[in-house]
Write a structure and sequence with these properties.
single chain; about 240 residues; Rossmann fold; 4-stranded antiparallel sheet; 10 strands; about 25% strand; disordered C terminus; P-loop_NTPase; ATP binding; nucleotide-binding; translocase; Thiamine transport system ATP-binding protein
Length: about 240
């Protein structure tokens, strides 16, 4: 039996007077939309997987390997944030290169990977430009290029398209799915847009008050009437 791409076993983490508790697993190559109200614990979930937060209890596994005690760099995970997480004083090429080696020890092969990644996301020739000279969509392309260059088996997306207009967000989502297919990555994508979940995901995690209130296939999920928190989150009726 193949190991799950990601598995959380009884993971807990205290947050102020409350906390989160998560247990779930995902098959390799799956795309999961993570939805829920603001403050429900969605970003905390991704940060626990990525290693930016440490569990108080429980274990995190990536491709069958216990990574609970490992730093982010040792987990086989790439993460794309809403704010791009780019260094403003460094050019685009260097921002991508940091994803390959924080010490920037780059050989011919690594340099070729960087050039290919920029070309893949439509930024060929942008290498010497600074993030501040780019549009929001272009900055997200840089973040996707960095993830593409790293080719990690698990890709975590924390509302990376939230600050973009609907048309550009759809374009970036499509590009992300193409890159995911080429890399063969498993994806967990935090979003507040049911339309993004419908377009990209095969399963949905609905998080409410620090717990997984529902974990189910996408088909028919938004029409379910047996999850009060989901109905409250969506408002009256199913999303368009």
């Amino acid at each position: 039996m193949n190991a799950s791409a990601i598995e959380l076993r009884h993971v807990t983490h205290a947050l102020g007077n409350a906390g989160v508790a998560f247990s779930f697993s995902r098959e390799t190559g799956s795309v999961t939309a993570v939805l829920g109200p603001s403050g429900a614990g969605k970003s905390t979930l991704l940060n626990l997987i990525a290693g930016f937060l440490a569990p108080d209890q429980g274990q995190v596994f990536v491709n069958g390997r216990d990574v609970t005690a490992l730093p982010p760099a040792g987990r086989g995970v790439s993460m794309v944030f809403q704010d791009n997480n780019l260094f403003a004083h460094l050019d685009i090429r260097t921002n991508i290169a940091l994803g390959l080696d924080p010490a920037l020890r780059l050989g011919r092969a690594e340099n070729a990977v960087i050039e290919a990644a920029m070309e893949r996301v439509g930024l060929a020739g942008f290498g010497r430009r600074k993030p501040g000279t780019l549009s929001g969509g272009e900055r997200q392309r840089v973040a996707l290029a960095r993830a593409f260059a790293r080719r990690k088996p698990l890709l975590l997306l924390d509302e990376p398209f939230d600050g973009l207009g609907p048309g550009l967000a759809a374009e970036m989502l499509s590009l992300m799915l193409e890159i995911r297919a080429e890399v063969g990555a498993t994806v967990l994508m935090v979003t507040h847009e049911p339309a993004e979940a419908r377009a990209a995901a095969d399963r949905v995690l609905f998080v409410d008050r620090g717990r997984i209130a529902a974990d189910a296939p996408l088909a028919g999920f938004f029409e379910r009437s047996d999850i009060p928190a989901l109905r409250h989150y969506l408002g009256s009726g199913a999303p368009d």
